[in-house]
Write the structure tokens for this entry.
Amino acid sequence: MKWFRRSKAEDVVPAHLPNAEEAAQRFWERWFELVPVVSAALGDGEPHRVEDELRDLVSSLHPDLVFSLEQGHMAMYALVITGQEDPRLRPYTDAWIDAAPPSDMVWEFHDSVPPVPDPTEVIVNLGQVKMRLGDYRVVAQVDGDVVDVAVYHPALADLSDQHRRTMTFLPLDVTLGERLAGERLRRVETAELEPQGTISLLELRSLVRELAGRTER
């Protein structure tokens, strides 16, 4: 999984259309022109060849959206565009996914980070640091219909503040799916030392899904 954002605040971003439906239509028109090049780059294992074009394309939908290229669940590849649960951006992601073509054998599309089948098998590379999600431990406290969590991994203390924040939230998103995490996780903290009474990411998934199912009945 590789997330792409604008690299610098002063980067020039194409003006996005204030009408979300028109912006989504323009996105997909351009996507159909780019997709052969994108598929070829991914097939060659060189996604960097199309990063700039895709970044500009997503920014034209809205400059605050982020996106990732991933292995698909049912298709070969997946394009994820998300507003990271920002309500300002929901009209754009809603319009984008509503106008998306049907998934096929090559591409599928998601407007939030979907849960991976087994997050404990995921390894994230941050420069020289490799973080296996199976090494994460979590303390979870249920309060009504939400959960407060403290997240621990032995390598978190060695990361920059930005990377530490990313690697605190990313395991939760890929374990629960971004939407369920946004709905059910209230307070998220990074634990500097391994707390007592921790559970695994898969145990957290079972806990939160059970809570969601119980409260939605």
Notes: The beta strands are 2-4, 66-71, 77-82, 107-110, 123-126, 129-132, 137-143, 146-152, 185-190. Helices lie at 20-43, 51-61, 90-98, 161-176, 178-184, 201-215. Confidence is low (pLDDT under 50) at residues 1-14. The two ends are 34 Å apart (CA to CA).
